[in-house]
Amino acid sequence: MSEVLPLTALPTLNAVLNAASAALLLTGYRLIRRRRVAAHRACMLAALVTSSVFLTSYLYYHAHVGSVHYTGEGWLRPTYFTILTTHTLLAASVPPLALRTFYLAWKGQIARHRRIARWTWPIWMYVSVTGVVVYLMLYRLPKSL
């Protein structure tokens, strides 16, 4: 059986999924500010699905490849590790926060949903955006400037 997508393509796919999650999160935020609840709900559900596909792909990739070491030099190196550290620490909180936020909305507990969404949204957005930054620094940008 042949591969549908080579293993080497997964980091790029993961960055695209992170960027899509960020775009959906931003759109969902703007929609709820305009009181377009049904469209907000659709965007946020799409963000949850996109992030879930990302997490599955990310775990599959690293289960097969292991850790990828950063080879950048100079000021890029501490910058990369600062972004990676904050990204990783906050990324661990996204699944439980996102699932809880979704659950509260689904159950119609909107006041509780709003309270937790005020924490979930910025953390999830930061993790999605910095996921793309980590990808660019690790795979695409020059290793010294």
Describe the structure using short key phrases.
145 residues, mainly alpha, Four Helix Bundle (Hemerythrin (Met), subunit A), elongated
Break the fold down into its secondary structure elements and pairings:
Layout: H1 10-33, H2 37-65, H3 76-91, H4 94-106, H5 110-140
Helix pairs in contact: 1-2, 1-5, 3-5, 4-5
Describe the fold and architecture:
This protein has 145 residues and is mainly alpha-helical. The protein has one domain: Cytochrome c oxidase, subunit III, four-helix bundle (Four Helix Bundle (Hemerythrin (Met), subunit A), Up-down Bundle). The protein contains five helices and no strands. It has helices at residues 10-33, 37-65, 76-91, 94-106, 110-140. The longest helix is centred in the C-terminal third of the chain and has 31 residues, at 110-140. The chain is elongated and about 50 Å long.
Average pLDDT over all residues: 96
| CATH homologous superfamily placement | Cytochrome c oxidase, subunit III, four-helix bundle
How much beta, percentage-wise?
under 5%
Helix/strand-derived category reads mainly alpha
What's this, in brief?
Helix content is 78%, strand content 0%. The protein is mainly α and 145 residues long. The chain is elongated.
